[in-house]
Amino acid sequence: MSCNYADGLSPYEHKGVLGAPERFDPPEKVQEKCEILADWIKNARHVVVHTGAGISTSAGIPDFRGPNGVWTLEKQGKKPTIDISFKDAIPTKTHMAIKKLVEENYVHYIISQNIDGLHLRSGISRKFIAELHGNMFVEQCNFCDSQFVRNLPTATVGKKCLETNCKRILRGRPCRGKLCDTILDWEHNLPNKDLEMSDYHSSVADLNICLGTTLQIVPSGNLPLRCKKFGGKVVIINLQPTKHDKKADLIINTYVDDVLEKVMKRLGLEIVEYCEKYDPTRMNPYETLNWNITKCNIKEIKAMYDLYCKKTKKRKLEIKKQFDLKIKKEEKPEIIDLT
To answer: What is the pTM of this model?
Structure first.
């Protein structure tokens, strides 16, 4: 449960703005904005979705900073009344819609702050997701860094040793490392490969879409803005105000499930229901399923970054140089010939 996850973290005072009032756009405005968003998705070159706790509330998992969020209530000495176990929660309409958008090549990458494993359980491939804060259904070797999918959520948080051996075979021999949970505590650095992938994809994107997050945690909350300096757009879909509302090109204040339903309808796509058959955590417990970001994945997105972003940077420097030269010429004092 998310309450147990929160309780397992180290004490930390600076949890951001808590319990800000929720706001709702009128239905006709929501429809209009969803049509705009669907058209932007349809015409975009590279779409990245940034997901926060707000996309899992309809699965029964409370968020953290909402009016009834875990940390909002904690400050009042209370706990959420609704709190399903991670094992029993299933992917929401939003999770399944995102999976379909990836399959149809409308969404090209997901950057998630969520540890509930619902993206993994929707059937998303590791190639298309960065998990910046860890995953309850993933364990990692403390020696070779290999990650593996678990059948049950981990009982620990904070990258603690699970006292089980690594499942990887190195040069014909078992790796001598031990498996640990992947859930970050406050003092931990973000996983290098996930952060590198997130940075590249957020920059390359010409459309970054933020779903169910107030964007308060850094650096993950600042990633959607990476595309702005390269001419990209930022869309925020959330019930509460966010840290970057002023920089967004479009803000939709309503439930994320409702927005995804309307967007999918506009795109002519159906949201497929969750099916245990495609849930990696429900597969044979004796089967080893890797959950690794590969060197090839990083190389591929870096090449795109070099193509789109470095080219833009170079062009901007050339324009600035020409502009500075023009200003310099205009400021050059006129020499009067008195002879």
So the answer is: 0.91
DSSP characters over 235-285 = EEE-SS--TTGGG-SEEE-S-HHHHHHHHHHHHT---PPP-GGG-GGGS-T
Output the DSSP codes for 220-237: GGGGGGGGGGGT-EEEEE
93 Cα distance to chain centroid: 17
CA atoms within 13 A on the CB side of 204: 24
Under 8 Å between Cβ of 219 and 195: yes
Task: State the DSSP H helix or E strand holding residue 163, giving kind and residue range, or none if neither.
Answer: strand 161-165
Q: 323 falls in which pLDDT band (50, 70, 90)? A: low
CA distances in angstroms from 48 to 105, 114, 223, listed in the order given: 11, 16, 10
Tokens standing for residue 226: 């990476």
Q: What is the mean pLDDT of residues 274-298?
A: 92
Residue with tokens 């990887």: 168
In whole angstroms, give the CA distance from residue 273 to residue 290: 25
Catalytic-labelled residue, pool 46, 50, 133, 201: 133
Is the backbone of residue 252 left (phi > 0), alpha (psi -120 to 50) or beta? beta
Q: Quick check: is 133 catalytic?
A: yes
Tell me how far apart the alpha carbons of residues 65 and 73 are, in angstroms, rounded to a whole number: 9
Say how far apart CA 102 and CA 95 lie, in whole Å. Answer: 11
